[in-house]
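It would be a great kindness if you could assist me with a short task in structural biology. The full record is reproduced below for your convenience:
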Amino acid sequence: MVTDVNGVREGYKMTELGEIPEEWEVKTLGDITEITMGQSPASNTYNDLGKGIPFYQGKAEFGRKFPQVKKWCTQPTKIAQENDVLFSVRAPVGEVNMCQEESCIGRGLGSIRAINGKSFNWYLYFLLQYSKTKFSSLGQGSTFTAINGKELREFRIPTPPYKEQQNIAEILSTVDETIEKTNQLLEKTKELKKGLMQQLLTKGIGHTTFKQTELGEIPEGWEVKELESISKITRLAGAEYSDLWKTSDEGEIVALRGYNIGENSLKLEKIERITSELSQKLIRSKLFKGDIVFPCVGTIGKATLIVDDNKYHINQNIAKISPSNSIDPLYLVYCLMSPYIKMQILKYNTSSSQPNILVGNLRKFRIIVPTLTEQQKIADILSSVDDSIVSFENEKKRYQKMKKGLMQQLLTGKKRVNI
């Protein structure tokens, strides 16, 4: 790499925005775009009946890329055109969407229109998306964080030649499309799982004769049992052990909280730890392989199977459910997240502010119980769908990471594209 005496690479120059290619310029948004700040129309001119043109008030209507129409306006005050970038000028400042048709914009938005030959709309979209944190630092106001039209017009951006803007946007759009397709597959798989859970956990596999129970129609030969009859349930009483939990990077044993429990997995964020020596004294809270953790406060309705011995403890907001030999642990996990259990959570919830299930009520939960063999078959089917969900989620994260890296490289000129 060749650099000059100031450490600037050959083919680059130093600017107030840092090092950029020599062919690039630093310009304000106002230099290369037309900016319209939104203004709310009279309340009697907008409706939810589809009359007039779409009306967007702010970020609340934004989708992943395009806004969702919720209201229309018959007498718009400020208008954004198709292919304008919609920019949130009030909290949160800096969110962007692309306008798909002529629309009315309220005071929470501005529209940024590319000028042919000077700026390309999708380049602006990605550049403004990348610059979100910079806009947040410009926010004003004690009640609403906001920026005004002058600040938006004077915002300085790196500006490649028009053709290079198009090429950069094309690359980032391709990655975006891949993320969107992956997300669609992810959502379809989640819907598949929801339908399979409803079917398999109440109708089973290949049954032709059914009987009526308090939980609805289930196959002949299946039973409805209370949770306490098929498992041992432990929930720490009140402040039991609570003075021993400490949020710390020290220690070896994790004390799980409600927000650490996902669907079939642990999200080990903001964890608490206790020392290995102390954990030997906390027998009731200790988790073993095959136990199920079920939050009883706040995030009720998720359950996770513990697959490792001697790593975790529960705090007083989580129940430990230890299935008997007649119950497949993974099958029970799916049952605890089923629609029929959600109905029982609503029935036994003791708080209108923060959901709370008392351990005595948890023991009364009614569970649909097939034969052990069919439990295992049902768990295997649902587990394979979960594997697909995890695969799509990981793929989505991989492409999102790729996009982030490409934005950092392409939108600063550190990596050039053919022009």
Q: What stands out?
A: The chain is about 35% helix and 20% strand. The two ends are 22 Å apart (CA to CA). The longest strand covers residues 109-114. The mean pLDDT is 89.
